[in-house]
Amino acid sequence: MKIHLTSVFVDDQAKAEHFYTEILGFLKKHDVPVGEKDRWLTVVSPDEPDGTELLLEPAGHPAVKTFRDALVQEGIPLAQFAVDDVKAEYQRLRGLGVRFIQEPLEMGPVTTAVFDDTCGNLIQIATKPQ
Q1: Per residue in 23-72, pLDDT tens?
Q2: What value does the mean pLDDT take over residues 71-85?
Q3: Closest Cα partner for 124 from 92, 89, 96?
Q4: Is residue 130 scored above 90 in pLDDT?
Q5: Strand pairing partners for 70?
Q6: How many CB atoms lie within 10 A of CB 108?
Q7: Across the chain, how many H-helices and E-strands are there?
Q8: What pairing do the DSSP bridges indicate for beta strands 79-83 and 122-127?
Q9: How far is CA 128 from CA 37, 80, 81, 83, in A?
C-alpha cells in the first residue's frame, strides 16, 4: 500500500493553482471540471510526475472553515513538503513574496519552516529525511 493522493482544502482553486504551480513549482497533473464551478485539480512534484498527487480541493464544506481556522490560529501546518535545503527554499519563496510564520528552525537533524499558502492553510517545509 502507498499514498496515491492527498488533499488540501483551498478557498479559490484558480488562486491555489497559481500559487502551487507558479510559486511553489509543482506541475499540474489533472484539471477536470466538476459541477458548475469546481474542478478535480491535482498537482505533482516535478521530481516525481507519476508520484503522489495533491488535490487542491474546494473548501466548500461547512466543517472545513472551523477546522482550518483552528489550525491556523494554533500555528499548526496542514501539510508538510520535503525539500533538500530549507534555508535556500525559504529565501527563494520569500523572494517571491511568500509570507512565512516560522523562519527556518533547526531541530536536531531536521530543519523546518512554515508559510501561508494564501488559500487558507499553513504549510511546513522540512529537510528530506536521510
Answers
A1: 999 999 999 999 999 999 999 999 999 999 999 999 999 999 999 999 99
A2: 96
A3: 89
A4: no
A5: none
A6: 5
A7: 3, 8
A8: parallel
A9: 36, 11, 9, 6
Predicted confidence at residue 128, as pLDDT, reads 75
Cα separation of 114 and 112, whole Å? 7
Cβ count within 10 A of residue 111: 18
**Residue 129 in this model has a pLDDT that exceeds 80:** no
Nearest by Cα to 94 from 85, 84, 103 = 103
Q: For 2, what's the count of Cα atoms within 13 Å in the CB-facing half-sphere?
A: 5
All three cell numbers of 123, joined, read: 504549510
11 pLDDT above the threshold of 80:
yes
Q: Quick one: CA dihedral 32, 33, 34, 37, positive or negative? A: positive
Name the CA dihedral angle for 18, 19, 23, 24, rounded to a multiple of 10 degrees. -120
AA identity, residue 14: A
Q: How many residues does the chain have?
A: 130
Tell me phi and psi for residue 24, to 5 degrees. Answer: -80, -30
CA 129 – CA 85 distance, rounded (Å): 11
Helix, strand, or coil (residue 68) = helix
